[in-house]
From TrEMBL:
Signal peptide: none annotated. It catalyses: UDP-alpha-D-glucose = UDP-alpha-D-galactose. This is UDP-glucose 4-epimerase. Residues 3-249 form the NAD-dependent epimerase/dehydratase domain. Keywords: Carbohydrate metabolism, Isomerase, NAD. InterPro entries: Epimerase_deHydtase (IPR001509), NAD(P)-bd_dom_sf (IPR036291), UDP_G4E (IPR005886). The keyword NAD applies. Its EC number is 5.1.3.2. GO terms for biological process: galactose catabolic process via UDP-galactose, Leloir pathway.
Length: 320
């Protein structure tokens, strides 16, 4: 028996896969490598290259590997780009999830942990986001994740699907020297690429009503995130009933200015960030609580900001 990790060759998915293996749980990876990397998957883990849009392939994979549950990480994850590519986003994230659920139903796989997103909240008008904060997604990406949660809820009602969805904001750091964030849109890769290219990183706005004038966000270490995915899967395997959604948040957040200062300290590259104009729609502060996940999913912020930066920098440098 094994768990299937869709998107298991990506930055987050690969950490989830290795967290499963560290617990001695068999796992299978499915990834079309549109943004993932085959060498992120350990040699000992079965790897199926394919798309969640291919129902026949999904059903075959679920049967051949005796899959009992799915961690669904695969999807088109770029919120900004999704505004320009809404139909592509819905195809990958909504149609793809529906096909996955159909394949699970037809093969008797009745457990799923869904990698959702705090993008479902949009720009909340609260200092601390909870699971009950009103949902108001501002991009097709955020909308697609909310629809995914609805589909899991409806399958529970119709078919008894055991499920939970994990919402989180900014995932950073690395748990392994050979797995790192390769997204062209995320803060850490952008900052590291600028420094390695002899350029100066930039901050969008330094006049927000925050302690240092820069935006405050929720940054969590990818290894901590992966551990809670595995904890959720183990709970579902044990027949425990989980909440339909959990926020994986820090509870306090850090500012972009703090990140830049920590990057300079960790890398040993002295720089003063360029200050660019504010980006439209950027709220001063978005931070989420993780209290429910701490209670049920072993959610703990085990890594400091310095840990996050140093582990990400080390993995990025090893890739050169």
């Amino acid at each position: 028996m094994a768990w299937l990790v869709t998107g298991g060759a990506g930055y987050i998915g690969a950490h989830v896969v290795r967290a499963f293996r560290a617990e001695g749980i068999d796992v299978v990876v499915l990834d079309n490598l549109s943004s993932g990397h085959a060498d992120f998957v350990p040699d000992s883990v079965p790897f199926v290259r394919g798309s969640i849009l291919d129902r026949e392939m999904l059903e075959r994979t679920l049967r051949e590997h005796n899959v009992t549950g799915v961690v669904h990480v695969a999807g088109f994850k770029y919120a900004g780009v999704s505004v320009q590519k809404p139909l592509h986003t819905y195809e990958q994230n909504v149609t793809g999830t529906a096909i996955l659920l159909e394949a699970m139903q037809s093969t008797g796989v009745d457990k799923i942990v869904f990698s959702s997103s705090a993008a479902v909240y949009g720009t909340p008008d609260v200092d601390l986001v909870t699971e009950d904060t009103p949902k108001a997604p501002e991009s097709p990406y955020g909308e697609s994740k909310l629809i995914g949660e609805w589909m899991l809820r409806d399958q529970e009602i119709a078919m008894g699907l055991a499920h939970t969805s994990l919402r989180y904001f900014n995932v950073v750091g690395s748990g392994y020297s050979d797995v790192y964030d390769t997204s062209p849109h995320n803060l850490f890769p952008l900052v590291f690429d600028a420094l390695l290219g002899g350029q100066t990183p930039r901050i969008n706005g330094d006049d927000y009503p925050t302690p240092d004038g820069t935006c405050v966000r929720d940054y969590i270490h990818v290894a901590d995130l992966a551990a809670s995915h595995v904890s959720a899967a183990k709970s579902l395997d044990a027949g425990q009933v989980l909440e339909p959604v959990y926020n994986l948040g820090s509870g306090d957040g850090v500012s972009v200015g703090q990140i830049m200062a920590t990057v300079a300290e960790v890398t040993g590259i002295d720089f003063t960030p360029e200050i660019a104009p504010r980006r439209a729609g950027d709220p001063a502060r978005i931070v989420s609580t993780g209290e429910s996940a701490a209670r049920d999913l072993d959610w703990v912020m085990r890594h400091s900001l310095a840990d996050m930066v140093s582990s990400a920098w080390s993995a990025r440098r090893s890739a050169q």
